[in-house]
Specification:
Elements lengths: L7 E5 L3 H12 L3 E5 L5 H8 L3 E4 L13 E4 L4 H13 L4 E3 L12 E5 L2 E5 L6 H14 L2 H20 L3 H13 L2 H7 L7 H11 L5
Helix pairs in contact: 5-6, 5-7
This protein binds ligand SHN and 1,4-dihydronicotinamide adenine dinucleotide.
Ligand SHN binds next to helix 1 and helix 4.
Catalytic activity: precorrin-2 + NAD(+) = sirohydrochlorin + NADH + 2 H(+)
Pathway: Porphyrin-containing compound metabolism; siroheme biosynthesis; sirohydrochlorin from precorrin-2: step 1/1
EC number: 1.3.1.76
Length: 210
């Protein structure tokens, strides 16, 4: 999972596909720049609210300078090819929405439950199938996972800040992963642990590693 926070990501094109890729970038905290003479209402609104930067013109050579990622999302095959070439020549990872295999990465169908992120990809074979499968899996994942991930996150941070010795740390992180908290959450019998309870647990088990 790549950290896109505050990274400049350039989407070329302003149609439905560009909108979808931009939405995913905003969810990931990226700085999205859209280059296109036209844009969907959704993109225009985000531009007016300064959530994205909209460069209202056609793509020009040099537009990808300083980009962390690029997306070729115009309906012009040749323009998308030019974007991919410029990105590859300048070492910028590029997603080609019109010809998946030509780009350097493709985007999966994604859903989130708090800190849990599930990505489904068919490697380009059938984007609609990815979407359908993702929705099917999503129905099976309730809020219980969000609570579980919150618990893991708090416990892991505390273990890392309190236990410097690597074999002890490893032992505790493994014990943490093995605890069946999810079942407790589902049964409704899980009480969130206080920081004191977590510290007591760490102190109880840290010495037990072989
Ligand atoms: C290779 C890839 C490259 C990339 O874009 O990263 C790619 C490429 C292409 N998509 C095309 C068409 C459609 N794509 C969608 C939808 C999605 N496409 C996504 C990803 C990917 N699409 C990557 C592969 C991922 C994988 O295989 O798993 C999703 C999962 C994620 C996202 O877009 O971020 C998102 C669902 C998001 C969600 O809702 O969950 C729909 C459905 C719709 O719009 O309702 C259609 C119309 C129906 C159809 O054609 O099936 C075409 C043909 C264009 C033409 O007509 O020529 C190409 C070109 C080609 O095949 O190379
Ligand atoms: N990867 C995916 O998920 C999907 C990909 N596609 C592909 O994506 C392409 C775009 O689809 P839509 O967004 O629906 O098309 P669209 O026609 O709604 O939008 C195309 C956009 O590209 C812009 N554009 C055209 N020439 C440009 C240039 N020289 N510089 C900058 N922007 C330019 C237009 O102004 C318009 O905003 C399709 O042609 C198809 O190949 C289509 C469906 C899904």
């Amino acid at each position: 999972m790549m950290n896109l926070r505050e990274q400049r990501c350039v989407v070329v094109g302003g149609g439905a596909v560009a909108e979808r890729k931009t939405q995913a970038l905003l969810e990931a905290g990226a700085k999205a720049v859209v280059i296109s003479p036209s844009a969907t209402a959704w993109l225009q609104e985000r531009s007016e609210d300064n959530k994205i930067e909209w460069v209202k013109r056609r793509f020009r050579k040099g537009d990808l300078a300083g980009a962390f990622l690029a997306f070729a999302a115009t309906d012009q095959e040749q323009v998308n090819a030019d974007i991919v070439r410029e990105a590859k020549n300048t070492g910028i990872p590029v997603n080609d929405t019109s010809e998946g295999e030509r780009g350097s990465f493709i985007t999966p169908s994604v859903f989130r439950r708090g800190g849990l992120i599930v990505a489904v990809s068919t490697s380009g074979a059938g984007p609609s199938a990815s979407r359908r499968l993702s929705r099917e899996i999503e129905e099976r994942f309730g809020d219980d996972y969000e609570r579980y991930i919150d618990f893991l996150s708090a416990a892991r941070a505390l273990i890392k800040s309190r236990v410097a010795e690597s074999s002890q740390r490893k032992h505790l992180l493994r014990l943490l992963a093995e605890m069946d908290i999810l079942t407790l959450i589902r049964e409704g019998s899980f009480q969130p642990w206080s920081e004191e309870a977590l510290i007591a647990w760490i102190d109880q088990y840290r010495g037990n590693c072989e």
